[in-house]
Design a protein that fits this description.
The chain is mainly alpha-helical. It has four helices and two strands. The chain has a domain of 47 residues. The mean pLDDT is 76. This is Reverse transcriptase domain-containing protein.
Length: 95
């Protein structure tokens, strides 16, 4: 996008997933409570850190599900091929 001085300005596309969440069948995989996770870590000598942000966008969306992530902006129409943040079952799939 350009500003009033005809300079390109970086933009960020954001999608509201509310309509998609209403028609999506929810996965029922309970997440562990943080106190249970910390209890299991207590007294351990080695820890491993996973970069969750980078890993998130590496989960592929099945071809038949990509049409459900389609959105239109002033430039064109797009569909996600990798899982974006905000989908209702994304957290349980990521886990």
């Amino acid at each position: 996008m350009k500003n009033q001085h005809d300079e390109l300005v970086p933009t960020r596309t954001q999608k509201n997933w509310q309509e998609t969440k209403l028609v999506t069948r929810k996965d029922h995989f309970p997440l562990p409570f943080i106190d249970q996770v910390l209890e299991k870590l207590a007294g351990k000598s080695h820890y491993y850190f996973l970069d969750g942000f980078s890993r998130y966008m590496q989960i592929h969306i099945a071809l038949e599900g990509q049409d459900k992530t389609t959105f239109t902006c002033p430039f064109s129409t797009f569909a996600y091929i990798r899982m974006p943040f905000g989908l209702c079952n994304a957290l349980s799939i990521f886990q």
